[in-house]
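S., here's the first fold you wanted:
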Amino acid sequence: MHHHFITELLGIKDSHVDVWDIREEESHFVAELFTKPRMQKCPFCGGRTKRIHGYRWQSIQGPAFTTKEVHISLWKRRYICAFCHRTFYEHLQMIDRYQRCMASVQTIAMKHAAVSSFRTAALVTGVTVNRVLRWFDWKELTSSKILPRVIAIDEFKGDADGERFQLNVVDVENRRIIDILPNRKVETIEKYLKSCDTGKVEMVVMDLSQAFKQAIRKALGNPLIIADRFHFMRQVYWALDEVRREVQKELPKKDRIRLWN
């Protein structure tokens, strides 16, 4: 029961992984794990085998608890196929091939990167920022070519392929990102929209960019274009501030200071 609790705490889904020993050191916890033998499917020929070829210790970074990291030493098995006689290591859900961090650490990092920053994700999980960036680059982002009834487009500052700005395409009603375009150029937006099924699109939420409006008109015809709340309110604020400045110029110094405060 105690060992089962530890594997659950570490986020290990593999039922054949068990705990050998766990101890606390000054700066980290050490967990020694081992795998139980079980029938394996050969990745080369698909044959089934339970023959063991050898063993090895693998060092794995686990999730961080409070201020301490968990260092895992896994005693894993290498099997030999009874049909093609090729050897291979057992497949584990807890760690991806060629990785030195648990898959759960990667998942936690991606969740923090989604709502915060890559630096925050790295600090929380105890890995480097470059590693978090590599994980992010490996992720396959699925995009839909059938656009919904209401979409929004908005630029954001990035650094992809030498372009300073990229463009979000968002499903407004379901609050999810549909796609990310490599730049904010009119021809890029127009080409993307023409490559999609836009038969359902009735409204487009965007800023007050004439370039965006031009691309939308060319690709979609005449949908209802709605200025997003942020840019609309910014125009209102700028107009109000301009009136304040004009009025302030005509007032005595004492009243100008009072109006400013």
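And the second, which I think is the more interesting of the pair:
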Amino acid sequence: MAEESPLFSNDAVVLGILFIILAVVFRTSSSQNPFWQKFYTYVPSVLLCYFIPAVLNSFNIISGEESSLYFVSSRYLLPASLVLFTIGIDIKAISQLGFKAVIMFFAGTIGIIIGGPIAIMIVSTFSPETVGGAGPDAVWRGLTTIAGSWIGGGANQTAMLEVFGASTDLFSAVLAVDIIVANLWLAVLLYGSGRSEKIDEFFKADSSAIKSVKKQVEEYVAGIARIPKTQDTMTILAIAFGITGFAHFASDLIAPFLEANYPGLNKFSLTSGFFWIVVIATTAGLILSFTKVRKLEGVGSSRFATVFLYVLIASIGMQMDITTVVSNPGLFMVGGIWIMIHIIVLLLVAKLIKAPFFFVAVGSQANVGGAASAPVVASAFSPSLAPVGVLLAVLGYFVGTYGAWLCGILMQLVAVS
């Protein structure tokens, strides 16, 4: 029987709903009303921008599956926002953050690599049928695609599907686990971003470098700020979408060429068109940050980037159906244990090196969420920090296939047949 159509299926209507949600959240979060001030003390505004569309999707009011808004926002608005965020970047200031961000990224990677086989071992003790199966339907084969997605991205996930040969039906089942568990963890990180100072105090973490970078960026913006004119706005949009267009043009040439002539490079995600879009947009923005274009920050380039990014946040929320968790509880249990091991490793390493929660959140999301959501989490702390998420996410593309392959081998060793 065909699924019931959502109440609103026209993307123009859905986009309007998303913008209304974003506007209401932003207006109430900046309200002087005591109720809203108290409310947003406990609930970060960015979490609502993500969660409300998820609720609407879960109750079939709108549909992330039928809508093309996520594709549009991730392929067009995301690279445009990356350009606008990075043209104002202060490379010298970012370098002051040190290597803790990279350490936390690899801690997250290790947590995912060991988390898969440990989750299988735990679940097999009381529900062996959940992690059993043979041939293409062996559950461990499907779970390797989650490892590829959580360490790298969609291209790495596809690589694992090809390498380990999971069946189509199994892949569909684990894909739901991938999306729901990853998005629930994203919601936790967004919530934590609003309480990062208290978390840092608990872990006795030194966040002075992060605060210093934020201060430097704020002082720079204050020094060049002026009232924007129409030509300024047009210039900002021309740079953002002009480079986005170039990134798509170059990606359409580079990715097919590499896939046809150097197929072995797919292990590095170098045959993925989305990878090249992200890399080219980010690189172009970084190059322009050394020119006078950087002064566009004074007329609000990062505000446009923030708007684009929040549309992406809302469209990501549309992908989550919270009601599907009960449809296959066994596999979701595996995914839940897996992400918990990832979290435990992150927190232990963070405690050991006294890393602030920002590095925990961005290091994790650069693995689990990739380029589509790592800058979202980073910008939840401060828009000036969004490029940190992008740079780490690109690193995830490179290590994703190798890490996922190792995870797959370990899961095969402990799997129940």
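Why I say that: Residues 11-414 form one domain. The first helix runs from residue 11 to 29.

Talk tomorrow,
H.
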